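Re: the 153-residue chain
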Amino acid sequence: MPKKCKFLIAILFFALSGFSSVAEENRFAVAGIGDPQQVQIFFERIQRDVRVGDRKNLAEIINYPLNFFDDKGRHVKVRSARDFKLNYEKIFTKTVREVILRQKYSDLFVNYQGVMIGRGVIWFGKVGRSGNVNDKTYVMRIYTVNSNPTYVK
Protein backbone atom coordinates (compact mmCIF):
# COMPACT_ATOMS: atom_id res chain seq x y z
CA MET A 1 0.00 0.00 0.00
CA PRO A 2 1.47 3.40 -0.94
CA LYS A 3 2.55 5.70 1.88
CA LYS A 4 -0.06 8.31 0.90
CA CYS A 5 -2.86 5.78 1.37
CA LYS A 6 -1.53 4.67 4.75
CA PHE A 7 -1.23 8.30 5.81
CA LEU A 8 -4.82 9.10 4.71
CA ILE A 9 -6.16 5.99 6.44
CA ALA A 10 -4.35 6.96 9.64
CA ILE A 11 -5.79 10.50 9.51
CA LEU A 12 -9.27 9.16 8.86
CA PHE A 13 -8.94 6.67 11.73
CA PHE A 14 -7.88 9.36 14.21
CA ALA A 15 -10.56 11.77 13.02
CA LEU A 16 -13.32 9.18 13.37
CA SER A 17 -12.10 7.98 16.75
CA GLY A 18 -12.21 11.58 17.96
CA PHE A 19 -15.83 11.91 16.86
CA SER A 20 -16.87 8.72 18.60
CA SER A 21 -15.31 9.81 21.90
CA VAL A 22 -17.22 13.09 21.73
CA ALA A 23 -20.47 11.16 21.22
CA GLU A 24 -19.66 8.87 24.15
CA GLU A 25 -18.99 11.86 26.40
CA ASN A 26 -22.42 13.38 25.71
CA ARG A 27 -24.98 10.85 24.61
CA PHE A 28 -27.69 13.46 25.31
CA ALA A 29 -26.55 15.78 22.51
CA VAL A 30 -29.06 14.13 20.15
CA ALA A 31 -31.80 15.66 22.35
CA GLY A 32 -30.16 19.09 22.16
CA ILE A 33 -28.70 18.85 25.65
CA GLY A 34 -25.18 20.25 25.73
CA ASP A 35 -24.24 19.23 29.27
CA PRO A 36 -24.91 15.64 30.42
CA GLN A 37 -24.62 16.80 34.02
CA GLN A 38 -27.86 18.77 33.50
CA VAL A 39 -29.63 15.48 32.81
CA GLN A 40 -28.14 13.75 35.83
CA ILE A 41 -29.07 16.61 38.18
CA PHE A 42 -32.61 16.81 36.78
CA PHE A 43 -33.08 13.02 36.87
CA GLU A 44 -31.87 12.83 40.48
CA ARG A 45 -34.24 15.66 41.39
CA ILE A 46 -37.17 13.73 39.91
CA GLN A 47 -36.18 10.63 41.90
CA ARG A 48 -35.71 12.61 45.12
CA ASP A 49 -39.07 14.37 44.77
CA VAL A 50 -40.85 11.09 43.99
CA ARG A 51 -39.11 9.32 46.88
CA VAL A 52 -40.36 11.88 49.42
CA GLY A 53 -43.70 12.48 47.68
CA ASP A 54 -43.04 16.17 47.06
CA ARG A 55 -45.78 16.98 44.55
CA LYS A 56 -45.13 20.72 44.93
CA ASN A 57 -41.52 20.40 43.70
CA LEU A 58 -42.56 17.99 40.95
CA ALA A 59 -45.24 20.45 39.82
CA GLU A 60 -42.49 23.07 39.36
CA ILE A 61 -40.51 20.93 36.90
CA ILE A 62 -43.37 20.02 34.59
CA ASN A 63 -44.05 21.66 31.26
CA TYR A 64 -47.74 22.54 31.04
CA PRO A 65 -49.91 21.36 29.55
CA LEU A 66 -48.49 17.98 30.58
CA ASN A 67 -49.27 15.08 28.26
CA PHE A 68 -50.66 12.35 30.49
CA PHE A 69 -51.75 8.91 29.34
CA ASP A 70 -53.77 7.09 31.97
CA ASP A 71 -53.80 3.36 32.71
CA LYS A 72 -56.32 2.81 29.90
CA GLY A 73 -54.22 4.75 27.38
CA ARG A 74 -56.50 7.81 27.32
CA HIS A 75 -54.73 11.08 26.63
CA VAL A 76 -55.37 13.86 29.14
CA LYS A 77 -53.83 17.34 29.13
CA VAL A 78 -52.91 18.43 32.65
CA ARG A 79 -53.15 22.19 32.25
CA SER A 80 -51.62 23.60 35.44
CA ALA A 81 -49.54 22.92 38.54
CA ARG A 82 -52.77 23.10 40.55
CA ASP A 83 -54.35 20.36 38.38
CA PHE A 84 -51.20 18.27 38.68
CA LYS A 85 -51.13 18.50 42.48
CA LEU A 86 -54.85 17.68 42.75
CA ASN A 87 -54.40 14.61 40.51
CA TYR A 88 -50.93 13.56 41.67
CA GLU A 89 -51.98 10.04 42.75
CA LYS A 90 -53.68 9.41 39.38
CA ILE A 91 -50.71 10.71 37.38
CA PHE A 92 -47.80 9.42 39.47
CA THR A 93 -49.36 6.08 40.37
CA LYS A 94 -47.59 3.69 42.69
CA THR A 95 -46.31 1.75 39.68
CA VAL A 96 -45.07 4.91 37.92
CA ARG A 97 -43.24 5.95 41.10
CA GLU A 98 -41.65 2.49 41.40
CA VAL A 99 -40.40 2.63 37.79
CA ILE A 100 -38.90 6.08 38.39
CA LEU A 101 -37.13 4.96 41.55
CA ARG A 102 -35.74 1.78 39.92
CA GLN A 103 -34.32 3.66 36.93
CA LYS A 104 -30.55 4.07 36.80
CA TYR A 105 -29.02 7.18 35.28
CA SER A 106 -26.66 5.06 33.19
CA ASP A 107 -29.63 3.25 31.61
CA LEU A 108 -31.66 6.30 30.57
CA PHE A 109 -32.77 6.13 26.95
CA VAL A 110 -32.30 9.23 24.80
CA ASN A 111 -33.25 10.23 21.28
CA TYR A 112 -34.14 13.43 19.42
CA GLN A 113 -37.44 13.59 21.36
CA GLY A 114 -35.77 13.75 24.77
CA VAL A 115 -34.84 11.51 27.67
CA MET A 116 -36.98 8.57 28.73
CA ILE A 117 -37.41 6.91 32.11
CA GLY A 118 -38.50 3.28 32.04
CA ARG A 119 -40.16 2.21 28.80
CA GLY A 120 -41.70 5.64 28.29
CA VAL A 121 -43.19 6.25 31.73
CA ILE A 122 -41.62 9.71 31.82
CA TRP A 123 -40.25 11.84 28.99
CA PHE A 124 -38.26 14.93 29.82
CA GLY A 125 -35.88 17.30 28.13
CA LYS A 126 -35.22 20.89 27.20
CA VAL A 127 -38.12 23.25 26.61
CA GLY A 128 -38.20 26.99 26.04
CA ARG A 129 -38.51 29.00 29.27
CA SER A 130 -41.53 30.89 27.98
CA GLY A 131 -43.23 27.85 26.48
CA ASN A 132 -42.80 29.43 23.04
CA VAL A 133 -41.13 27.08 20.55
CA ASN A 134 -39.03 29.97 19.24
CA ASP A 135 -37.64 30.75 22.71
CA LYS A 136 -33.90 29.98 22.65
CA THR A 137 -33.47 29.93 26.44
CA TYR A 138 -34.12 26.45 27.73
CA VAL A 139 -34.90 24.64 30.97
CA MET A 140 -35.32 20.94 31.73
CA ARG A 141 -38.93 19.85 32.17
CA ILE A 142 -41.07 16.71 32.29
CA TYR A 143 -43.51 16.83 29.39
CA THR A 144 -45.09 13.37 29.25
CA VAL A 145 -46.22 10.82 31.85
CA ASN A 146 -47.51 7.39 30.83
CA SER A 147 -49.22 5.21 33.41
CA ASN A 148 -50.47 2.84 30.71
CA PRO A 149 -49.36 -0.75 31.54
CA THR A 150 -47.62 -0.92 28.14
CA TYR A 151 -44.98 1.46 29.52
CA VAL A 152 -44.74 0.48 33.17
CA LYS A 153 -43.80 -3.21 32.85
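Helices lie at 3-25, 36-52, 55-60, 81-86, 88-91, 94-102, 149-152.
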